[in-house]
Specification:
The complex is a heterodimer of chains A (377) and B (167). By secondary structure, chain A is mainly β. Chain A has one helix at 13-33; strands at residues 53-56, 59-64, 67-68, 72-73, 90-93, 96-98, 100-104, 108-110, 117-125, 131-138, 149-158, 174-176, 181-189, 193-194, 197-198, 204-215, 236-238, 252-261, 269-280, 293-303, 307-316, 321-323, 329-330, 333-334, 345-347, 354-363, 367-376. In chain A, strands 19, 20, 22, 23, 24 and 27 form a six-stranded antiparallel β-sheet that branches. In chain A, strands 8-18-16-10-12 form a five-stranded mixed β-sheet, with no helix packed on it. The longest helix of chain A is centred in the first third of the chain and has 21 residues, at 13-33. Chain B is 15% helix and 45% strand. In chain B, strand 1 (33-47) and strand 2 form a beta hairpin. Classes of the chains: A mainly beta (377), B mainly beta (167). Chain A: This is Putative repeat protein (TIGR01451 family).
Chain lengths: 377, 167
Amino acid sequence: MPQTPHTFASNSIIEKIAHTVVHTKTVIATAVCLLYLGSPSMAIAQGVNAGTEIQNIATVTYEIAGEDQSPIESTPVGNSNPGVGNGSPTMFRVDRKIDLTVTGNNDANVVPGETQSEVTFTLTNEGNDTQEFTLTPEAAVVSDDFDPANCSYEVTAISGTPLPGVVIPTTGNILLGPDQQASIAVTCDIPVVSGGSLLSSGDTSLISLTAQAVKNSDDSMTTETSGVDTAENIETVFADDQGTDDANRDASHSARRTYLVSVSATPPTLSIEKSIVSFLDTNGGTTKTSGTEVTYKILVTSSGTGSINNVEITDPTPANMTYKPSSIILNSTNQSDANDVADNTDFGISIANTATIKLGNITAGSTQEIQLTYTIN
Amino acid sequence: MNRYIKIKKLAVGVIASLLLLSTQSFAAQQGHLKVTSKAQKMIVVNNNGQKAYKFVPATKILPGELVQYNTYFQNIGNQPANNINIVNPIPKHTVYLPNSAQGKNTNIVFSVDGGKHYGKAGTLKVRDKTGKIVPARPSDYTHIQWRYNGNLAPNVQQAVAFRVRLL
């Protein structure tokens, strides 16, 4: 006996029409009452994760001589054993797509001699597995005016929640899940001279960053699968595009950024002069005898525009004199003799028997005044 | 003594028939239809400037690629089968490709509510994010049902098919 009103088994035209009417009514009723809350399962942008099993089972119901029969489920090779649960899914496993994109973000305007100038990149894992990526900055890009030196990188941020074990910032390899992005800063030192001539305004240097997928989520190395494909195994497929400094489908991608030199029209200049401020003998007078303290002033002045980097002043102890401990004063502030990071000033540590004052980067137009005292032996 | 032997024989006979009975009830039952589901990957190829599909085994499949499922049903009994219905949920992590369900001599209906209700393509409704009732898109389909028209004679095999895109 038929259980369902949707009967199309008859060969009679009249019955077919009758059944069609029933069917149409059902459809109308269905169309009105069908309210499905929620949306179908949303997938992430880069697709289903590698290794996911995709299963399919079809179920067939039928009648023999007007009698309902037990449903029969499908199998990949064919099943005639009736009953729910006696079929088995036709299955394949989603394979591993290796895809990534490196994009360049910020260029940098630099002056000759500038250190640790930063350009930025973004790496996106566009594959469907968690990958470990290596990052390689390359300064020696041809077809530019100069090459920066001492390039290094740091992953400064990643989108979303870092995967377990990922600590940001890092200067090592970076682990990214599907769709995850890493922000990368590449820093290089800009030379003053290239090819025997001073850098000039408009000179450019290209800096390239290449990312490469090297390891999969199951810790296996990222290599493209060769040999016979199977539904069961996870094959690895390289699907990345060609970047500026890598090939198509090589599990790598790259982009370039530019260092643009701008030398100011009035280049900064530096001058230094040393003078004696005072004499103080052991009796409180100003005689120049043994034991008299001589205080010197070193004036560092700069002019023009721009900045002067890594300025370091050294003052060796004059002959027949002895440094008076803790006597260094920079811009009216007492400095310590220890080689600490607090004031970047020391005596006898950076260089033996010498006062070293690391002024660092100074802006053109400024003046720095150093005072220090030696005693006549 | 003779009597004992008789009883013993009887007991053996009873046990034997019980065994036979249980063997029959536990053996795989034979239905009248054999049902097979096959998956194939679809590759778009250029056939003299025309877009065509090539079918290869579903072994290497990446997100975004297309898969065709064929369901074969063969009458392996000796009587015609009728009122045949084939129901196939859209596999998880895939989305139904519009107008891809096909099957000779079938009426094809779809469900957007997990197989509770079925209707023809274009008649189904869903709620959108704001709760408004809107026409269902093919990507909303959860199940497909093929209603086979007519009898399937002994030994005859028919097939239905549909296509999905791996999410």
